[in-house]
Amino acid sequence: MSFESIDGISTINVNVAVTLAFAAILLHVGYFAKAKIKLLDKYCIPAPVIGGFIFMFITWFGYSTNAFAFNFENIFQDIFMLAFFTTVGLGASFALLKKGGKLLIIYWLIAGVISILQNTMGIAVSKMIGLEAPYALLASAISMIGGHGAALSYGGDFVEMGYEAGELVGAAAATFGLISAVLVGGPVGRRLIEKNNLKPDEDEDFDTSVTEINVGTGEKLTSLDIMKNVSAIIICMALGTIVSGWISKLINMGFPNYVGAMFIAVILRNLNEKFEFYKFDFTLVDEIGNVMLNLYLSLALMTLRLWELSGLIGGVLLVVLAQVVMMIILAYFVVFRILGSNYDAAVMCAGLCGHGLGATPSSIVNMTSVNEKYGMSRKAMMIVPIVGAFLVDIIYQPQTIWFIKTFVGNIK
Fold this sequence. Notes:
76% of the residues lie in helices and 4% in strands.
């Protein structure tokens, strides 16, 4: 860590180790605040969100007063996300995937339809207020579902087409979406559960099957067993990035590394069940994934720049606000009923708000926060990550390109 003055502002250069330490400390600050402030626990606000927000406002104060600034070396965020999705894949036995069945298809179609409604909403609002279509689309499914990566990618394309604020608007809209995702998901799930007096169905066949499939052996793992489980995660991460690169070239479109890693992990898990390459331990892998997820989100939020929201001016701000309101209304009044009006449906609605406004890790942390308070929904924890991480893109990407070609023109 070093200090220097840049343009008259005291800048704190934070190396990668200290950046990671900041994230870990803020995570514990979030847990402490959640335990002490009952309102945060009541509305299922995730701990990494609390800690990340506290630091985010500190950095905003430093920026707005020109008093100080932080320059983080943040190389672990993407690695943690990659590791988390790999652990999700390792927890997905084909026997479990079959249990998703009809509900998985329904949730996937719901997420896809919502992505179409988001772009429709963006264009409709832009027509009413005179906002240029590229900026409306950047504040719609591109940033809400695609996140920062898609927003900056499409934003760059729009800049080349002559819309100079494309990247700024995309980054600001994605930031707004991520913040909204982790703020509204927990409360929506909590409200549905409390209002309808819902309880987890512990007797459901799905839950019993999950317990049987992923049950621990009860044997103490040796150091070598632990090393094999950790090595499996790392190898799946590496192979996943290679496979994602091949797919990207094949389809001539970006394909997320974490999706490739997740599916490589699914394949390994199921091959291991047949050939027993090593002693797989679901509890260990699940806890590693939980740590990775929390550190990822803590890093993501603490390094967000609130001042980037200045790009949300005028019509763009109206579009993103409309997206958040529409998501809450659809999740609460429509999606909950389509999914069955039960406890699993409520938790899945919390997850939908997460990846429908921000990112799939946001949906997981939303659902985890609800699960910690009310009980586990295994259906939600299996179905939502698969749809949010990959399946929704099958609908979201083509229809977004159609909207761009129809209302903007061909991307160069």
